[in-house]
Amino acid sequence: MRIELEKRTGVSNLFAILSPLLALFLTLVFGAIMFAMLGKNPFSALHSFFIDPLLEVWSLHELAIKAAPLILIAVGLSICYRSNNWNIGAEGQFTIGAITGSILPVLYPQWQSPMILPLMLIMGAAGGALYAGIPALLKTRFNTNEILTSLMLVYVAQLFLDWLTRGIWRDPAGYNFPQTTAFNESAVLPEILESGRAHWGIVFAIIAAIALWFMMRFMLRGFQVTVLGQSPRAGRFAGFSSRGMVWFSLVLSGALAGLAGISEVSGSIGHLQPSISPGYGFTAIIVAFLGRLNPLGIIASGFVLALTYLGGEAAQLSIGVSDKVTRVFQGLMLFFVLSCDTLIIYKIRIRFGRGNSSEGAA
What sign results for the dihedral spanned by CA atoms 224, 225, 229, 232? Predict the structure, then answer.
């Protein structure tokens, strides 16, 4: 007996809908097996991981805080991936956006004005866009692989942030802790509601998702993204610029990642420090694919992945598991999302005996 993949005559619309749901189900099943192997009750562990964080108002605010950067980054990445440009360095663009957006409150802490926060957000988005422009320039000028260049630039950004917060930007009154001075009140992103810490970053994320969905659905630029992503030759025949699309998709995704970075620092942390992200830029890749590279679907998948962060923190306290469990769940989810997507194009065939003498379909 052997299992083979047989290409379908057309794309399966049924599995296009069921694929992310099947991936979530398989993630839960294998997550339960993992908890059982760790000596934990699978049902109580999954309950503490996925249900307990939804039962308190304050935790719902925390869920929105963690979902905001994931959604913002993922909607930008979805445009890249649909145009066949593979930005893997959103984590670095997130970091550079946080740094450039923090220039004003760190270097001019005495300046308090209603203009400072909008300027911070613009500078954060511009910083992320310029940093994403580096792999765009290398690809269009030297045909360099953007996967490698964008990924390597992540470590450059993280080391630069570490150098700043431990060096020239370190707070002299901070008891030698590696962090900058706290942002003044006018440089802090305000909360949406008085009942919790959720700030306007989640609003930016939802607006960006809706705007990019509208672009992909109704605008010429969205049509160009789709055509050049599916068939570059057809796009060139239609007069669309492949080089222009490289710049557009990478710079747009970098700008949104940079906006996410300064929103996170200004709204949640209140200062720069060596570690400002638990890996939002990499997790956003999972969010983008779980959302089917659809900006509206990314809103839902962003909350799902944010729940894994929040649930992981809750599970550490309630059942005593390592924080690495969160990474395992996220890795399982990406694996099953990509695996289940295979069923959209291929059918599974089970063949018995030798040659083609006997076969069965599944």
Answer: positive
